[in-house]
Sequence to fold (188 residues):
Amino acid sequence: MTRPIEAIVVGASAGAVQALSRLLPNLPATYPLPILVVVHVPPERSELATLFGAKCRLRVKDAEDKESIRPGYVYFAPSDYHLLVEDQRTLALSVDEPVLYSRPSVDILFESAADAFGDAVAGIILTGANEDGAAGLAAIANAGGRAIVQQPHEAFASAMPLAALARCPQAEPLTLDAIARQIEAWAS
Fold:
């Protein structure tokens, strides 16, 4: 039997705001799991935490270096920083080189979350126009975690979901509505 999910990591790029707007605002303020999100954004300051903070009942913030991961929070990777999960279940920010032209990188978040949480992490790849996240989702699946991909035909940009399914064939392709139901189910 697999352990209950203790954290959810999400990666998205082109079309991310619309996809996340169908997943995050419906979660109740009492939702018990942390959700860590990487969205490919330009290096200038991102307003994603502000935008979703106004829409969501959960607490939403930009991740801070060495911050403890707390339940019921949505953490966004700040623009131009990689977001990592450390073994002590704290967050780390890095300015290491971009991965697949992206900083923040979905792969870096997902691979570090797989190392920190093992089979108690769920990874979700949403819409996007490159291959970032495919290797990270495979790392989560290989650690025994749950791997979910937005149905490519439903995605605004299908390259990221298609790459993730090719690299991680055991991932489950789901519609956004089904992903929303799954996120809610992990809380129980």
Observations:
- The helical segments are 16-23, 48-55, 106-117, 134-142, 159-167, 176-186.
- Residues 7-186 form a domain with the Rossmann fold fold (CATH 3.40.50.180).
- The CA atoms of residues 107 and 133 lie 5 Å apart.
- The chain has one domain: 7-186.
